[in-house]
Amino acid sequence: MAIETRPKLDAHKLRADFPIFEQQIHGKPLAYLDSAVTSQKPRQVLDAMRDFYETSYGNVHRGVYTLSERATAGFEGARAKVAAFVNAPSERELIYTRSATEAINLVAYAWGLDNLGPGDVAVVSELDHHSNFVPWQYIAGRTGASFRTIPIDDNGELVLDSLDELASSGRVKVVANNLVSNALGTINPIEQLTAWAHEQGAIMVVDAAQAAPHLALDVQALDCDFLAFSSHKMCGPSGVGALWGRRELLEKMSPFNLGGQMIHKVDLDKTTWNELPYKFEAGTPAIAEAVGFGAAVDYLNEIGLDAIEQHEHELAAYAIDKMSEIDGIRIFGPPPDRRAGIVSFDIPGIHPHDAAQILDWDGIAVRAGHHCTQPLMRRLGVAATTRASFYLYTIPEEIDRLVEGLHKVKRALG
Ligand SMILES: Cc1ncc(COP(=O)(O)O)c(C=O)c1O
Fold first, then answer.
1. Band of pLDDT at residue 1, cut at 50, 70 and 90
2. Which residues line ligand 1 (CB under 6 A)?
3. Which atom of ligand 1 is nearest to the CA of 102?
4. For the structural domain made of 48-301, what CATH number should be given?
5. Ligand 1 pocket test: which of 39, 99, 101, 102 has the largest number of ligand atoms within 8 Å of its C-beta?
6. 271-287, pLDDT tens digit by residue?
7. CATH classification (class only), 11-42+304-413
8. So where are the chain's domains?
9. 3-class SS letters over the chain
């Protein structure tokens, strides 16, 4: 084996935290190389949720009895952890959502419907996930604004030279972009994009769904206006995500969902809204999931985001190096130091679904498809790719197994 992971992050040791790795798939140890779609869960998160259900479960912000107060404390305590994780200036700016998708939709609807119109431009990029692409395309269409995309080069990196041309096409009012691409792993120059957005008088919305699991995030250093992410990609449960937003903007925005909890006062003729963050949290939230989200943040902090990022760069470099030996393979995306632990590739003549199916017989889980990035797939000239994605529990031996498996796929189908 060619690389050693740094002692700071011992992936072999961390794997013991994840019960899912105790099983075999088709008689082989599970090589889970699909963490970009969702991550596996450590015992620490599972235990926090079980413990909460067993000792503290109730609805939040509603009861005066002990259990409800305990539940509220768990829920709000987790909010404080998640807010600190992205260095939010205030917990009130941290809104629980169901997912990154819902967080982006919240901004697109609640900010976009009131702030976009004819002559305005909403900008995303060719690299964006449908969850960031489609809401802006749709809201631009609803409001008469135009919708433009930043192109990418052959490395899968944004062509920032195109920004002047975009600026000349109208009033740029919103720039929404992912920090890390889920399809190629590209780490995008968000600070630069944010500075440009602000020069145009636009807001900057960062889709951090793929960044939050892998990089230390700081909304104040990024200087963005909104940042969206999901718990399930960062060792937490599914069903909960977060939107951080700049307080002045959130205060001015209309609500997104309406119902219980988000109201201040309801009269027959008029309703007024609750204070932040509750104005955007209608209905009973994902309570135990929020607690699990907080436990996931604790878990990642304990390991250290810098160590996780470094581990992924090393794995990406190792994978690209080993996979390049496969005859005819086309590996997409930038060099390893400018990407998270994601490697998308195509072996001409072999359909990604067939490759993924054969790999599964050896217990290797990879993704095949368009990765919710159809415009990107068109730009790359493919219908789909196969994608291997790594996380803190990925070990180089799994990449060796992937490469062996791909040789097998070629022998079977090539
Ligand atoms: C870059 C990016 N943005 C947004 C999303 C949507 O996240 P979720 O499905 O958790 O809402 C994903 C999920 O794959 C993603 O990778």
1. low
2. 37, 99-101, 129, 131-132, 178, 182, 207, 209-210, 230, 232, 241
3. 11
4. 3.40.640.10
5. 101
6. 999 999 999 999 999 99
7. alpha beta
8. 11-42+304-413, 48-301
9. CCCCCCCCCCHHHHHHHCHHHHCEECCEECEECECCCCCCCCHHHHHHHHHHHHHCCCCCCCCCCHHHHHHHHHHHHHHHHHHHHCCCCCHHHEEEECCHHHHHHHHHHHHHHHHCCCCEEEEEECCCCHHHHHHHHHHHHHHCCEEEEECECCCCCECHHHHHHHHCCCEEEEEEEECECCCCCEECCHHHHHHHHHHCCCEEEEECCCCCCCCCCCHHHHCCCEEEEEHHHHCCCCCCEEEEECHHHHHHCCCCCCCCCCEEEECCCCEEECCCCHHHCCCCCCHHHHHHHHHHHHHHHHHCHHHHHHHHHHHHHHHHHHHCCCCCCEEECCCHHHECCEEEEECCCCCHHHHHHHHHHCCEECEEECCCCHHHHHHHCCCCEEEEECCCCCCHHHHHHHHHHHHHHHHHHC
